[in-house]
Amino acid sequence: MTTEEMKAMRLEAFLNRAYKLDKRIKRPSKGEYYALKRAEEKGNPQKELKTLKSRIEQAIEVFFKQSIDYKTEESLKILSSLNAQTNNSNDLSLVIEKGLKITEQFK
């Protein structure tokens, strides 16, 4: 079972891979995930969820700009689609898990 700390660290790790490739995007922080969790507890996570979804989309765009093979490109397209369908922090965690596997080459 994954803890909230692990989920936050994975989000930060995924976004950090993109940040290493393009410093123009905002530096990632575990606090972004915690802000979403707090908002979910209060019952109004739309703003934080939208922010994180756009950050993940930015990261995916950074990976697309790299020289990647066809399989990775297709996987990133699927990941982008999954990200667009995300409705809560659990969905977001699944997207991040898949994203970490897909972007393993950018460690």
Description:
The protein has about 110 residues and is mainly α. It is built from five helices and no strands. The protein has one domain. The chain has helices spanning about 5-20, 30-40, 45-65, 70-85, 90-100. The two termini are about 25 Å apart.
What's the quick description here?
73% of the residues lie in helices and 0% in strands. The chain has 107 residues and is mainly alpha-helical. The relative contact order is 0.18.
Order of helices and strands: HHHHH
Oligomer: single chain
The rounded distance between the terminal residues' Cα atoms is 24 Å
Q: Helicity level, as a percent range?
A: over 70%
- Biggest sheet descriptor: none
Summing up helix and strand content along with how strands pair, one would put the structural category as mainly alpha
Poorly predicted runs are none
Q: What number is the mean pLDDT? A: 95
Count of separate DSSP helical elements: 5
Shape field: globular
Helix-strand layout with pairing:
Blueprint (H helix, E strand, L loop, with lengths): L3 H18 L9 H12 L3 H19 L5 H15 L4 H14 L5
Features:
mainly alpha, single chain, 107 residues, 73% helix
